[in-house]
Amino acid sequence: MLIGLPVLLSSCELSEDVVGDVPAAAVTGTIYIDTLTVRMSTVLVDSVPTSTSSYLMVGQYQDARLGTITARSYLRLGLAGGFTPEAGAQFDSLVLVLPTDSYRYGDTTQVQHLQVHRLTEALRPANTYYAFNSRAYEAAPLATRPFRARPNLSSIRVRLADALGRELLQAGLSRQLSSTDELAERLPGLALMPSAADNGALLRLAATSESMVLQLFYHYSSAPDNGQVFDFTAVAGSRHFYQVQADRRSTLLSTLATTRHAISSTHTAAETYIEGVLGLQTKLEIPYLLNLNELGGTWVLNAATLTLETVAGSENRFLPPPATLTAQATNRGNQSGEFLASTAGTQLLGTYQTGVSAHTNLEQGSYTFLLQQYCEAVLKHTMSNTGMLLAPATLDTPERVVLGAPSSTNPPRLGVYLTRVQ
């Protein structure tokens, strides 16, 4: 049974870029072509918004291919009600509580550091913030807390500088903390960041949890054993975002600095890279696909299957690849177009799986895309033959994958089945 709609092809000589040494006159019945050229490059696309996320992210790790990956977070605190302590209140401590979720990316066994800084630049309530944005903060941290991002770490508690706690308590006594805006005038927010030498993991924090609070502990001199606590909450502050950056200066991607700029795999050791929150995507082109129109007669495109293998040694349990990749049409300017569809009309996806590589006979990770719909559209000239962009299905997380490109030990495999019907 033939699959898909017929692709009408003109009567011309068969290009060697299509079937190598097989002459057009010898082609009858069903043929399999696996010699179409595939070109690959790494593209830097637009940054993703992170202020719309329910999470914050903090940490740093060293990636041999992508450079030093650093995540910083910025949040505004708020008041559910005015802070109006009674006269005679005495300061005890100021503690920042940061609940985590189960997500980590990187080596969770390493000791790393959380530094908390006081913002000097406010977060604008109406602004959308992206992964490349930042806010100004004081150079000296309010506190530094070592930790390991182990799976059982449910929260991080950081005692901040007493001076800030005393300042907030005095403002409350002076009735100057009756609203979130008054708090923001005094304390625009907090910046959370790793130490410059850290090489551990990126840790995700639950920004919209009621448990993300700055707790001011105090007591009254008349009742020293009756402790009091007031919570300044991230939920009431209603503004937060995280920044993720890569220092690529010592990598093969060092020249990748301009949005929509592409670097061919010929300049990156026959590899390409995909990483969602950094905006790294792989562009894939099949430059001689239209040469299939040079086959004589009428043909049906039965199937077109592309398999992309990961590079051996580029992933491990601390750095897993994205579970799913999407494919979007693109143009010569590397702009993102419509999502490609499968023959069933659903979004075209490639799911990560492991198996024995046809190239190396070793266990290898790979993604497979069924490109019949895309190839038919190009052959019928309803879509330009300018390639596609591959990206993680979730763009605001740091999972990355290294793909083998042409000339590598794990090159892409594109197989096309055609049947002659006339």
Question: Overview of this structure, please?
Answer:
By secondary structure, this protein is mainly β. The chain has 2 domains: 6-46 and 259-420, no CATH class; 55-247, no CATH class. Helices cover 8% and strands 42% of the residues. It contains 5 helices and 26 strands. The strands form 4 sheets. Strands 4, 5, 6, 7, 8, 9, 10, 11, 12, 13 and 14 form an 11-stranded antiparallel beta sheet that branches. The chain starts with 5 loop residues before the first strand and ends with a strand. InterPro entries: DUF4270 (IPR025366). This is DUF4270 domain-containing protein.
Count the strands? Answer: 26
| Shape, per Cα inertia axes | elongated
Question: What proportion strand?
Answer: 35-45%
Largest sheet data: 11 strands, antiparallel
**Quaternary form:** single chain
Question: How helical, in percent, are the residues?
Answer: under 10%
Derived from helix and strand composition plus strand pairing, the structural class reads: mainly beta
How many structural domains are formed by the residues?
2
Amino-to-carboxy terminus distance: 15 Å
Radius of gyration: 28 Å
- Provide the low-confidence segments as ranges: 1-27
Average pLDDT confidence is 92
Q: Treating each run of at least 4 consecutive H or I residues as one helix, how many helices? A: 5
Secondary-structure topology with pairs:
Layout: E1 6-8, H1 16-19, E2 30-33, E3 39-44, E4 55-63, E5 67-76, E6 89-106, E7 112-118, E8 143-147, E9 155-159, H2 162-173, H3 180-186, E10 190-194, E11 201-206, E12 213-220, E13 223-233, H4 234-237, E14 239-247, E15 262-264, E16 271-275, E17 280-285, E18 298-309, E19 324-330, E20 336-339, E21 349-351, E22 353-356, E23 363-370, H5 372-379, E24 388-392, E25 400-404, E26 413-420
Antiparallel strand pairs: 1-18, 2-26, 3-15, 3-17, 4-5, 4-11, 5-10, 5-14, 6-9, 6-11, 6-12, 7-8, 7-10, 12-13, 16-25, 17-24, 18-23, 18-26, 19-20, 19-21, 19-24, 22-23
Pfam families: DUF4270
Protein name: DUF4270 domain-containing protein
